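We modelled the chain as a single entity of 323 amino acids. Its sequence is:
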Amino acid sequence: MISLKKILQDDGTAGETLLRVIRLLLQGMQDHAIEGDAEDLAGFRMYIQRLIAALEGGLAESEFLVQAGSALQTLEDYNRRTARYLKRPVGEWQAIATMLISAIAGMSEDERTASRLREISAGVRSANGSDEVHKIRLQLSECLTELQLDSRRQKSGDGRGAAEAAADPAPEDSAQKAAGVSTRAEAEAALASAWQTDPPSYVAVMALDRLQIFNMRFGHSVGDEVVRFYAGFLRARVRESDRLFRWSAGALLVLLPRPNRLEIVRDEIARLMEARCEHTVQTTSRTILLPIAARWTVFPSMAAPRLLIHKIDAFAGNVPVTP
């Protein structure tokens, strides 16, 4: 840190040096002010120029701080007005987006989708950070994609809803192409073996969210890439003795040899699933960062294999499990 007091005491030319420093700072404030309202900016620069001219008129050193304080107050006032000016278009865009989303919600025949759109509309009005805006944009994109899917099905005479379509599997060959991850057939054999062994094992099932959305927007190759990436993400975080399988197009299964109680194993997987996962995919026109999340559950492997497979399929396909 430079002490101006020391300069004034030790250097007979300190007054002139201090004058040059203040002049330079004022010139920087004038040249680099944020461009808001054009008339306001012109007035601010004119005022700073008058301060610079006053310094040229030979002020006493005792008046330097007074002029500097005046310049800072002027800068604070200008920045405050400019912040309001720059926020004004954001508020207008929020109002436009809110009206459009509300209109789409009103036209939707699916109450679940309409409810989600109303929640997004409320989020648009309160969003004040780039992370929140990015999250809302993804949510809105998913909703609009579901509406497009419903519209196409209605035009083609297929009356199924978006929730059923989300459970549709991709082609079977695609479901078995997870590099480095075992297939469903191997998983079923491992479950049959685990049923007869001791110590007991548990089965963690992860069903990826939004996979149908990814497939529709970017193609099944991107959806398959997302699943394979998530498989690697899990593989790096489970124990070396744990076995990872691709159960279906959008579901992964981890066989967990554990001598612990179910509650302890659930807590372990819950901590694992809290980890944030994102993957960047390259389309023909751009690079996109996709957030990856999954529903999950844990089953003991003590049940008969056929019953256990039914429970896993029911969870992975979002079908109610029969008690």
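As a brief sanity check on the tokenised model: The two ends are 73 Å apart (CA to CA). Strands lie at 201-208, 243-248, 251-257, 278-282, 287-291, 294-300.
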